[in-house]
Amino acid sequence: ISPWCTLHKNSFYQPLFLHSSNTLTAPAPFADETSCQCQAPHEKLTIAQARLGTPVDRPVRVYADGIFDLFHSGHARALMQAKTLFPNSYLLVGVCSDDLTHKFKGFTVMNEAERYEALRHCRYVDEVIRDAPWTLTPEFLEKHKIDFVAHDDIPYSSAGSDDVYKHIKEAGMFIPTQRTEGISTSDIITRIVRDYDVYARRNLQRGYTAKELNVSFINEKKYRFQNQVDKMKEKVKNVEERSKEFVNRVEEKSHDLIQKWEEKSREFIGNFLELFGPDGAWKQMFQERSSRMLQAFSPKQSPVSSPTRSRSPSRSPSPTFSWLPIKTSPPSSPKAASASISSMSEGDEDEK
Question: Which UniProt keywords apply (predicted)?
């Protein structure tokens, strides 16, 4: 007996909660490889009972099936909904084989072994059933002790039936899940077909041969030429981006230089006006120096009266007179001042 199984007195062999924690670190087991052979009678549960909760060793066994080609987030979300339908659930996932899928639905991208492995590594899956039937039979449901079946509510017409889940719904065992809009296997394949040339060129560039890609000789040469053209475009684009960066840097520096030049110009003009303007310091200094020069060159006024000169006995008498003050106006210019000084000096010589 498997160490993961125990016998409930009113139920059947069932993996314990320890197995659920183990699925986070190990792949989910295949149903045909487990040693749990259920011998005890399987007690049917109603949806109300399942939602109220069940004992730890009697989880609600929920079944979900599908093709799961190109396993994506839409698949994972559907399985997450199935796993969380009830407080204590055990999710079994059935995956149809290649033969059944190719017969009723069409060709797949991934083979059955790849699809099985993809499901084993989904965190919500507790057990994977390989080669699941296209239509669920009472024998299959009894064999795997399935309580409820989870799937989206859209009628699935296939294998000559309008809805392969019709009898499950009538038995009250069907639990609907919600589809994820915008993502499906068909959508992914449509993208690849639509952009086939892009992906073919991509894989040729990564080392795949034309034979592996099923590409003709002419198309191979065309794709390789397009790859070379794209490389040249990328180089030109890089050069343009670098040149734009250089131009932007030059513009930034030129703006900085112009701004600094304007600031310096304003400062220079302000200093010039402060020094040489109408009220500048240079004018005041010039006026002060001019007034000092005028004071230096202008003669001082003589006294109003002076004592009478005594006549020398040896000389002839001369009339006595007094010096009268002479009103002089200050010279209008330094040249006039120098001329007046020279004339005064000549008069003194004549007197002598």
Answer: Coiled coil, Lipid biosynthesis, Lipid metabolism, Nucleotidyltransferase, Phospholipid biosynthesis, Phospholipid metabolism, Transferase
Integer Cα distance of 47 and 89 in angstroms: 12
Q: How far apart are CA 243 and CA 197, in angstroms?
A: 32
Amino acid occupying residue 12: F
Which CATH class for the 47-182 domain? alpha beta
Token pair in block for residue 117: 């492995």
Boundaries of every domain in the chain: 47-182, 186-292
- Nearest to 127, CA basis, from 48, 259, 38, 50: 38
Q: Which residue do the tokens 């330094």 mark?
A: 334
CA distances from 149 to 65, 83, 128, 225, 293 (A): 9, 11, 14, 54, 120
Burial bucket for residue 6 (CB in 10 Å: 0-12, 13-18, 19+): middle
pTM of the shown model: 0.59
> Shortest CA distance to 49 belongs to which of 58, 37, 57, 40?
58
The Cα–Cα gap between 195 and 114 comes to: 25
Beta partners for 89?
A: 60
- Give Cβ neighbours of residue 251 (< 8 Å, ≥ 6 apart): none
Tokens read off for 226:
């397009």
**Backbone torsions φ then ψ of 41, nearest 5 degrees:** -65, 145
Q: For residues 164 and 39, give the distance between their C-alpha atoms in angstroms, rounded to a whole number.
A: 29
Considering only CA atoms, give the Rg of the chain. Answer: 57
Q: Strand (E) positions, 211-345?
A: none
Q: Give the pLDDT of residue 71.
A: 97
**How far, in Å, CA of 316 to CA of 258, rounded?**
90
Q: Which residues pair with 174 in a beta bridge?
A: 149
- Pairwise pLDDT comparison (25 vs 79), residue with the higher score: 79
